[in-house]
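re the bet — no i am not wrong, look at it urself. input seq straight from the record:
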Amino acid sequence: MRISCLAAMTEPEPQRDLTDPTPVDPGNPPSCSCLTTKELQQNWREVKQRERPVRLLFEIPSSRIVEQTVHKYVVYQVVVMRSGSFDSRRVFVERRYSDFSCFHHKLLEEFDEELEEVVLPRKLLTGNFSPEIISERRLSLQDYLAKLYAIRCVRRSPHFPKFFTEQEQKRAHTLLRAGQFRLALEQLENILEIEEKLLPWQRPTLIVPTLCAMAVCYRDLKEPEQAFGAAQRALPPVRRYGLKQYRAALLGLLVDVGYELGRPVAQLQEELIRTKDVERGEVSSRSLKELVIRAFT
């Protein structure tokens, strides 16, 4: 008996007791006797709004033709959004049809049965650059991403975020190795926004490499506050999920930058010493910058 991992487009959410008609404000619960019927209705609408499930939405609103010396191709702008809550920024990446094709084949290697009914728009040998064909393919690829996301094991697969960020990660690390830290940060900030949208369906460690790279860039740009903030945000998932390759390097950066900022770093210093003692021989002696540079080498 084949077990399918097709699932609804949202994960099950913990439910409060909806038999109680009185909405509750967590910060300041109002007394029912103090509210009019209109106010109760308004509060109830706000509670239901907060409990709306979050979904990922994909839109391919535009495309462009890139002409090079020996060939030309179409790139599609893929916008990633989250519904269920106000999403103030629509971030996007650009992908060619060949990128979608490569992504599809990687997924088929793991989820062949689950993708039985998900078909990648077919490749055309002629007419690829006509406005009609481009528009039709743009909508078909948008529908394809929505169908992939509807499959639980696919949206939780590491392949899913890689499709939206791997090219940009490589570009950012190339810029970082070249010392172009400001340009690298522009890429990394966009990557982080996409990863944050994907985070509910991925491990919390997803954002660690990006935050570490941002901390390195900020430090080399002489922006210690931002460097400390990025490293500080990366540390909890590193601790919780045992990412030994990052822990000592992150702590080292936090201690150094913390001293520079006049922050209390005694506890971080003690943790760094314990980490090196407990994991002696397992912990990399490389700096965070060295780890980041090697990530996509």
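see?? The radius of gyration is 23 Å. told u. also Strands lie at 56-67, 72-82, 91-96. so pay up
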